[in-house]
């Protein structure tokens, strides 16, 4: 397939492998591009709005976010009930300290008057720099070339840097550069779309402004959550004058410039929140971050960023031969994943990363089931930090379990920032108890794939035990001795509050077995740890026996006549949604039908049984997998961005290679092509990771369950080859798949046993292992 054939929906982004660029300024794409051009480092996210701010037509959210920096408000239910989530936490923007604009002989830049030419903007995945250039001719006829560069440092987590240059092209005159820190208001309304963030309106409260020499810092505070943020700036050279009020500070630089003489400023901005530094030390912390950045300089920061990214790509790059637009989609996904992940053990990955306020900046199961595999196999230390975040909120999960009438154990929230349940719609929220099993599954994957048992010993075992305790409380053994789990919702949000959701039951079974295995391992190898844990959480042998029993007799609904797994006990009793007569403009269904209408039918928003077939593939036989795949594919709308990638992988698993490719096409450029029409609110982090999974788990057929990598690769007909690296058991393995062969190369570490198409092989250093497909 040639690139242009499928690349029709985003002609506004040029196709190239290592960058995205826009060749012209188009206000109708501005909101979308703000998301795509977001720069972030897991802690800070600067949306890709223009340096000069809202004066650019189409500017939607000229925002800066800090991962996990939230406001909190009581949730008001017209009809409340016991145990409903009490308060919402939602991400709020912090002041924008990146702004810079200019005046020519006292006349302010305005892209809407005069003429804008030679415009281009480019975000480079290898340097991490966003560069923008244009020529502006003012109404006076005076012409300037403007070039700005921006980066959000991966090495200095508090720091954002901007270099801004203006060159008069046809005159000598006064160029005034005005740099700012701004907390000016704006408001976005969510309407009926649950995927848009609830509220961004409302200013942060002013606390203080401090200025000394070349350093200025605001402190602002949230209204209810009692969080403070310092937004600060230091310029490479001190400004001629500084002024401020409670919401804005302005730094003015005056120059008389000759024709052709470039006037530039470099601005370093730093953000510190009271979530990581105590309030009295925040301004000092900002000052040291800025002094360090100032000493390194803009070019130095670019050099550091380039080195950091070179290392990232060495450990993560997926190469796709034969399709530049998909290659771009893959690099875009990987780059944005890197930008999304909180890595301090206190923050996580929001559904929209740090690119927007969609889904209120909440963390979901998206992290453990979709995004974690990417980090696990490329940057395992980040995977660990993501799990540490969950461990750090275990107490909140305990509290939630009590609210839900569980006298012991922990129930993780469906959506949250710092731990409490923030889902106000329990049928598709709290009822998704599978979150507990998802976290346990991720802990197991981390331990098996890295071989690092220290997380399990220090924190993980306690999380797994506490969360496992909930399952016996959700059901009972039936007359046939089978254990059932009642009134939960599985991953498919178009079906709610069911008995024996297959995904939940299968994952709960795995969870309880894992818990039992941990007990056995601890009692053999770390008896003291087991003893102290038993004491700490009051774990009894009886409980462990119940886990064993419930897991051994877990009910997995199955229609033996048709050879199909049922999504839940009653699923097959319901009528199938009338797809044949469903108008196209009624999708996504969630925006056009009351949930009850949807719940009454066999219709899936996203994989549920099919996801279980992937995560626990070794527990299902191939015939069942194929039948289940066929059945559920026909009734799935893919209204969730979490859907296509899993169908791509499972299509590959059951042998539908073309379908695997088609579904990959639905996920590989999902945000770049705005396939879900809401990327303006932020990227879809789970789908970004889904692109990676589709190649590694789908086309290459990798499974690393238990810590042993198995592959059964094929090459999509459209490509010449693909290649990726994965980390497993402290090795770095390169996998290259060509038309007729797969080549495994050990880049780091000791010899590694892997399985290729059912055959165990050993890959050793300095010797390619070439296998036929
Ligand atoms: C999906 C959930 C997902 C959430 C956040 C919803 O649309 O149905 O599975 O966790 O989005 O990405």
What general outline do the C-alpha atoms trace? globular
Spatial order of the strands in the main sheet?
Answer: 1-9-10-11-12-19-16-15-14
Number of strands: 31
Q: Report Rg.
A: 27 Å
| Fold-level CATH name of the domain at 50-314 | Beta-galactosidase, Chain A, domain 5
How much beta, percentage-wise?
15-25%
Structural class: alpha+beta
Question: Which hetero compounds are present in the coordinates?
Answer: beta-D-glucopyranose
Query: What is the mean predicted local confidence, pLDDT?
Result: 95
CATH evolutionary superfamily of the domain at 50-314: Glycoside hydrolase, family 65, N-terminal domain
Helix content: 25-40%
Number of helices: 19
pLDDT < 50 stretches: 1-9
| CATH class value of the domain at 50-314 | Mainly Beta
Task: Using the 3D structure, state the CATH architecture of the domain at 50-314.
Answer: Distorted Sandwich
In whole angstroms, the N-to-C terminal distance is 22 Å
Describe the 3D structure:
With 773 residues, this protein is of the alpha+beta class. Among the domains are: 50-314, Glycoside hydrolase, family 65, N-terminal domain (Beta-galactosidase, Chain A, domain 5, Distorted Sandwich), CATH 2.70.98.40; 700-773, Maltose phosphorylase, domain 3 (Sandwich), CATH 2.60.420. Helices cover 32% and strands 23% of the residues. The strands form eight sheets. A nine-stranded antiparallel β-sheet has the order 1-9-10-11-12-19-16-15-14. Strand 7 (100-104) and strand 8 (107-108) form a beta hairpin. Helix 5 (366-378) packs antiparallel against helix 6 (380-392). The chain is globular, with a radius of gyration of 27 Å. It starts with a helix and ends with a strand. The model is unreliable at 1-9 (pLDDT under 50). The structure holds beta-D-glucopyranose. Residues 351, 359, 364-366, 491, 493, 605-606, 640, 642, 686 line the site of beta-D-glucopyranose.
């Amino acid at each position: 397939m040639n690139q242009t054939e499928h690349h029709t929906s985003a002609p506004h982004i040029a196709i190239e492998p290592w960058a995205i660029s826009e060749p012209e300024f188009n206000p109708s794409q501005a909101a979308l591009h703000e998301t795509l051009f977001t720069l972030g480092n897991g802690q800070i996210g600067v949306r890709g709005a223009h340096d000069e701010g809202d004066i650019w037509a189409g500017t939607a959210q000229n925002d800066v976010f800090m991962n996990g920096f939230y406001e909190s408000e009581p949730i008001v239910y017209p009809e409340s009930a016991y145990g409903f989530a009490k308060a919402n936490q939602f991400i709020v923007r912090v002041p924008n300290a990146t702004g810079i604009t200019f005046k020519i002989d006292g006349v302010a830049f305005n892209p809407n008057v005069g003429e804008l030419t030679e415009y281009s903007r480019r975000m480079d995945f290898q340097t991490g720099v966003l560069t923008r250039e244009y020529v502006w001719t003012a109404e006076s006829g005076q012409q300037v070339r403007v070039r700005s560069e921006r980066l959000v440092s991966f090495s200095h987590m508090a720091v954002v840097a901007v270099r801004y240059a203006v060159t008069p092209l046809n005159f000598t005159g006064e160029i005034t550069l005005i740099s700012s820190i701004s907390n000016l208001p704006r408001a976005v309304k969510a309407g009926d779309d649950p995927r848009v963030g609830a509220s961004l309106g409302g200013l942060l409260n002013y606390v203080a402004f401090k200025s000394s020499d070349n350093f200025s810092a605001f402190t602002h505070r949230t209204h209810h959550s009692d969080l403070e943020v310092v937004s600060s700036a230091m310029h490479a050279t001190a400004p001629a004058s500084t002024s401020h009020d409670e919401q804005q500070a302005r730094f003015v630089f005056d120059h008389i410039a000759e024709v052709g003489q470039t006037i530039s400023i470099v601005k370093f901005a730093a953000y510190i929140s009271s979530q990581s530094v105590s309030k009295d030390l925040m301004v000092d912390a900002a000052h040291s971050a800025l002094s360090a950045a100032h000493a390194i300089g803009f070019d130095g920061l670019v050099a550091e960023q380039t080195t950091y990214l070179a290392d990232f790509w060495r450990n993560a790059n997926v190469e796709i031969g034969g399709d530049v637009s998909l290659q771009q989609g893959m690099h875009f996904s990987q780059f944005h994943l890197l930008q999304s992940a909180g890595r301090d053990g206190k923050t996580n990955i929001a559904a929209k990363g740090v690119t927007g306020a969609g889904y209120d900046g909440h963390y979901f199961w998206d992290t453990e089931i979709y995004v974690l595999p990417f980090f696990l196999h490329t940057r395992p230390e980040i995977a660990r930090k993501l799990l540490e975040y969950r461990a750090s909120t275990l107490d909140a999960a305990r509290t939630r379990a009590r609210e839900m009438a569980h006298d012991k154990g922990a129930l993780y929230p469906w959506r949250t920032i710092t731990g409490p349940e923030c889902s106000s719609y329990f049928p598709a929220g709290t009822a998704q108890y599978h979150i507990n099993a998802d976290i346990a599954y991720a802990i197991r994957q981390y331990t098996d794939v890295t071989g690092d048992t220290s997380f399990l010993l220090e924190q993980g075992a306690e999380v797994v035990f506490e969360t496992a305790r909930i399952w016996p409380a959700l059901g009972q053994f039936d007359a046939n001795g089978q254990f059932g789990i009642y009134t939960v919702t599985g991953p498919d949000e178009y079906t709610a509050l069911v008995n024996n959701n297959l995904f939940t039951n299968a994952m709960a079974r795995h969870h309880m077995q894992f818990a039992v295995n941990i007990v056995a391992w601890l009692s053999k190898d770390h008896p003291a740890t087991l003893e102290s844990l038993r004491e700490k959480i009051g774990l009894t042998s009886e409980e462990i026996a119940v886990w064993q029993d419930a897991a051994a007799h877990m009910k997995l609904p199955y229609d033996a006549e048709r050879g199909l797994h049922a999504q839940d006990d009653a699923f097959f009793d319901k009528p199938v949604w009338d797809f044949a007569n469903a108008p196209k403009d009624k999708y996504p269904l969630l925006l056009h039908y009351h949930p009850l209408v949807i719940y009454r039918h066999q219709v899936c928003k996203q994989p549920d049984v099919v996801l279980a077939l992937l995560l626990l593939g070794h527990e299902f036989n191939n015939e069942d997998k194929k039948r289940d795949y066929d059945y559920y594919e026909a009734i799935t709308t893919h209204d969730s961005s979490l859907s296509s990638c899993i169908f791509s992988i499972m299509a590959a698993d059951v042998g539908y290679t073309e379908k695997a490719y088609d579904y990959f096409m639905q996920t590989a450029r999902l945000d770049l092509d705005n396939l879900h029409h809401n990327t303006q609110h932020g990227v879809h982090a789970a789908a970004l990771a889904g692109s990676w999974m589709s190649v590694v788990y789908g086309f290459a057929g990798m499974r690393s369950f238990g810590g042993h990598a198995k592959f059964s690769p094929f090459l999509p007909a459209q490509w010449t080859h693909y290649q990726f690296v994965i980390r497993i058991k402290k090795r770095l393995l390169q996998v290259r798949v060509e038309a007729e062969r797969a080549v495994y190369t050990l880049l780091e570490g000791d010899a590694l046993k892997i399985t290729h198409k059912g055959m165990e092989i050993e890959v050793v250093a300095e010797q390619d292992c070439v296998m036929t497909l």
